Amino acid sequence: MAVRLSSTFVFRKLHQLTGILPLGIFLLEHFYTNSKAMTVVNGTPGLEFNKAVADLQSIPYIIFIEIGGIFIPLIYHAVYGLFITWEMRPNNVSYPYPRNWFYTIQRVTGIILFFFITFHVLNFRFGLIPGLNDKSVADHSDMAYDIVSGEFANWTIFAVYLVGITATVWHLANGLWLFAVDWGIVIGERAQRFAGYACIAVGLLLLVVGINAQVAFIHKGGLLGLIGLA
Fold first, then answer.
1. Does residue 2 lie within any of the structural domains?
2. 125 contacts 137 by C-beta, under 8 angstroms
3. What sections of the chain are H helices per DSSP?
4. pLDDT of 214
5. Is the distance from CB of 37 to CB of 46 less than 8 angstroms?
6. Cα 141 to chain center, whole Å?
7. CA triplet 36, 37, 39: central angle to 5 degrees?
8. Is 1 part of any domain?
9. From the CB of residue 69, how many other CB atoms can be counted at a distance below 10 Å?
10. Is residue 86, in this structure, part of any structural domain at all?
């Protein structure tokens, strides 16, 4: 007998999948490219970052890759995530278990990410945020480091990105655990507990990498340079 899957089941599975792949790739690519800002060539920071941005933009059909591989999946994930959030009924007060809190934080970080990623894409990818630098990093790769560092010198923008990076890392790390459990990759309480520890470790590592790359735009060497070790 054929098993008929409900549309809700399919939509939710697709929501999880589009969160892990596009969001994960989006984050890892950004952290890798941004970490190039740590490299100083002949006393000048930013040259390797500018080159990395130029290399990305030189990929054939990059706009179609971005639309099909990042923007459309992320839009679906964000919109359906907001629908899930609208339907949720928090019970943290009555049942203050860790997983209940994690679920609520996942929804809250999802809302933060909806606005943060929209701001980030409009700002650095297209240069469309009024009052900020009107130059797109993608279209001015030779000035990419100066554009980003100039905006991060504004502590309000720096704080926005600090919150955004933290929310993104939490959402991805907890999402990885939820994906592994819901898709039957880890089965059993013990396996799920160790998977949770692994996701926490991955999240902490990514958070340090992300913040280190962010600091590198306003201080040579990033966090290591800030404490005198680079």
1. no
2. yes
3. 7-18, 24-35, 47-57, 62-66, 72-87, 98-120, 144-152, 155-182, 189-216, 222-226
4. 95
5. yes
6. 21
7. 70
8. no
9. 14
10. yes
- Find the helix packing angle between 144-152 and 155-182, rounded to 10°: 100
User: At residue 180, what is the residue type?
Assistant: A
Indicate which CATH number applies to the domain containing 88: 1.20.1300.10
Which range of residues forms the domain containing residue 24? 7-226
The greatest distance separating any two alpha carbons of the chain, rounded to the nearest whole angstrom, comes to 69
Distance CA 227, CA 230 (A): 8
Residues 134 and 211: their CA atoms lie apart, in Å, by: 24
**Alpha carbon of residue 2 to chain centroid:** 38
Rounded Cα gap, residues 112 and 161, in angstroms: 11
pTM of the model: 0.89
pLDDT of the chain along its 230 residues, tens only? 444 567 788 888 999 999 888 778 888 999 999 999 998 888 888 999 999 999 999 999 998 998 998 899 989 999 998 888 887 766 665 656 677 888 888 989 999 999 999 999 999 989 888 778 788 998 999 999 999 999 999 999 999 999 999 999 999 999 999 999 999 899 989 999 999 999 999 999 999 999 999 999 998 878 777 776 56
Q: How many structural domains is the chain composed of?
A: 1
- Residue 114, in any domain of the structure: yes
Rg, Å, the chain Cα set: 19
